[in-house]
């Protein structure tokens, strides 16, 4: 059996699905955030690491306010992402580095600034946590520096998000 991710909430007794997350489309606050993380744990424990990472992404890109109590127990999932890409698995994981590179470069819409910089922050975590993952040489994009990402998070993210992200990055 796969070990649970120590950075995610327990899987719980109620099985979640993408339909449960879709029900929160209009209110992507604290409940949505926790449901995404819980669903990520459930998918992880089912040996579906790529889908688990996508559920964690939904939490990362949600509108959970910086003051939400859930962030004390389950901070924005940069450490979760690092842990996931470091785990050995025989199951499909995809290439998280390419995933975040594409996402950061292609995001549009009203939350584009926030999502772009969080995607670049996740990309930097993945690059450091699993240096074996290759970049997409066919999708060339200017990769931002750690300083660029910290500035983007400071401008678009939660007040202490850049420093929290840098702490995770520093432990890798």
Could you characterize what this model shows?
This protein has 172 residues and is mainly alpha-helical. The chain has one domain. The chain is built from nine helices and no strands.
Give the topology string: H per helix, E per strand. Answer: HHHHHHHHH
Shape: globular
Count of DSSP-assigned helices: 9
The proportion of strand residues reads: under 5%
Tell me the radius of gyration: 15 Å
Percent of residues in helices comes to 55-70%
Largest sheet: none
SS-based class: mainly alpha
N- to C-terminal distance:
26 Å
Question: Which descriptors apply to this entry?
Answer:
mainly alpha; globular; 9 helices; 172 residues; 0% strand
Short note summarizing the structure:
With about 170 residues, the protein is an all-alpha fold. The protein has one domain.
Show the helix and strand layout.
Layout: H1 18-22, H2 30-45, H3 49-60, H4 70-73, H5 78-86, H6 96-106, H7 112-129, H8 146-156, H9 161-170
Helix pairs in contact: 2-3, 3-5, 5-7, 6-7, 7-8, 8-9
